[in-house]
């Protein structure tokens, strides 16, 4: 029986790299992002290249109702979910006292509540899978604040707190929970910056790290992974 992975924020950057990595390993996928055209293109690419089943659903996961609609689609498609990757995120640059009004709410809705409601909605389906694993894509901004990180850092601290609580709650059931804290990763978010690509982590490196963590023996878990560019933070 094929295994299945659910990945949010799946069409760009880290999410896309993780989707490709799990498709390479024969996982069927359920993917979501906000743009239907991007999802359709990725579905076509992955199914053609890897022969897997790929279900896509356009949704804005900062909206609880749309998150619940995506969850319902997953549950209608898969009897169990082996891997859930909570990757949906948004970054609004600015200081706490100067960022646009609503920046905190938007980033909490997107970066925290999307993971909270997706996990709650899928947990019974996850429980049906042997050796299930939940990955929450946090950030080095989950560990310390940076100039201009404003409410983004608040939301990512909160996501790490959610991940830690989830780890303790699911530990007795044998469901693994891992927090990934990447530093600056070379994605479209950094387009236009005058720095070489070598100054960044690659999205593929993050995906390979997720895959390696998933493949530990059943008795081992990496709870938290911090990744930084070799030369340090940007």
Automatic annotation (TrEMBL):
Organism in which the protein naturally occurs: Jiulongibacter sediminis
Metal-binding found in the keyword field: no
Designated name of the protein: Short-chain dehydrogenase
Similarity-based family: Belongs to the short-chain dehydrogenases/reductases (SDR) family.
Signal peptide (UniProt feature, chain positions): none
Pfam families to which the protein is assigned, alphabetical: adh_short
Keywords annotated in UniProt: Oxidoreductase
GO function terms (MF aspect): oxidoreductase activity
